[in-house]
Amino acid sequence: MKDRRLPPLPALRAFEAAARHLSFTRAANELGMTQAAVSYQVRLLEEKLGVPLFLRRPRKVTLTDAGSRLAGRAGEAFDILAEAVSDIAERADETLVISCNTTFATTWLGNHIGDFQMKHPALAVRLIPYNFNRAFGEDDVDVAIVAGTTVEPGLTGHLLVSAAFTPMLHPGLAAAAGGIARPADLLKLPIIGSDDPWWRQWFAAAGIDNPDLGHNPVAEMGAQMLEAHRAIAGQGVAILTPFFYREAIARGDLIQPFELQHDNGEAWRLVYPARHRNQRKIRLFRDWLLPQMPAASSPPAPAFAATGGDRRGATP
């Protein structure tokens, strides 16, 4: 392994700039330092190397032979570093990585992201499943779309869609049961996700405090969207957020038998580190997404803590 013990980087940077300009003053202006600070850093480097790098004359400095040799190699090294940093920054700015909640991705974003890409063809998009344990820790995630109720410090959150929920089912299933006239009529049908707290919350809002849900088999689907697919297949009644199933209602695949939607404070939000709020790619995506959301007029929340879930704050 090569010996990479180097003098302090600030000293090398000061020397390289001074050598390029043959002026401590112009080097100081470039680096945002004082002339005295540049001179001090060069002195440190000379002491470290044990040789003079500049010949100092009134109103003029020139490089010694050692200074000339070091200046050429140092300039090359800083050019290579600058190119590498620029390349990484450009590549990072060319790709937007979105970590997205499963239901939002499959019912809305997947159907609309093409419009964003058409508007910004130079910006590649990578969509990955939301992972609560490493939202911004890995995978170079730029923004996340998550479901939850509160906000973590350091994140900016924009409200997108309230998770207000209501029972929905296939019209054929409702007809087979003789119609759904009252909330209690739903209890005659299979309840999908009967252990979901949303059910008891909705029934309580409808005036039924202790609905009999125990006879329904428990099946943890892991995402609201999967429960919607079961409802569309006529397998039971699902408790869903209507915003995501407007097309299914328009097609006649689902009906919403009651106007009552219960809002328990959960919502989907766009979140990203507050320090990155002015990044161009984040700004472009935010400015495209928010106007299309029901809650577009809501101000950003300063600290949103995602629970990680589609519902109950527990599922992706």
Task: Summarize the topology.
Blueprint: H1 9-21, H2 24-31, H3 35-49, E1 54-57, E2 60-63, H4 65-94, E3 95-100, H5 102-119, E4 124-129, E5 143-148, E6 155-162, E7 166-168, H6 171-176, H7 197-205, H8 224-232, E8 238-240, H9 246-251, E9 267-273, H10 280-289
Parallel strand pairs: 3-4, 3-5
Antiparallel strand pairs: 1-2, 5-9, 6-9, 7-8
Provide an overview of this structure.
By secondary structure, the protein is an alpha/beta fold. Among the domains are: 9-92, Arc Repressor Mutant, subunit A (Orthogonal Bundle), CATH 1.10.10; 166-251, 3-Layer(aba) Sandwich (D-Maltodextrin-Binding Protein, domain 2). The protein is built from ten helices and nine strands. Helix 1 (9-21) crosses helix 3 (35-49) and helix 1 crosses helix 4. The longest helix has 30 residues, at 65-94. The chain starts with 8 loop residues before the first helix and ends in a 27-residue tail after the last helix. Residues 296-316 are annotated as: Disordered. Belongs to the LysR transcriptional regulatory family. Keywords: DNA-binding, Transcription, Transcription regulation. Residues 7-64 form the HTH lysR-type domain.
Task: Please supply descriptive tags for the structure shown above.
316 residues; alpha/beta; Arc Repressor Mutant, subunit A; D-Maltodextrin-Binding Protein, domain 2; 15% strand; transcription
The strand order across the widest sheet is 4-3-5-9-6
Please give the largest β-sheet: 5 strands, mixed
Count of DSSP helices?
Answer: 10
Which CATH architecture of the domain at 166-251 would you pick?
A: 3-Layer(aba) Sandwich
SSE string, helix = H, strand = E? Answer: HHHEEHEHEEEEHHHEHEH
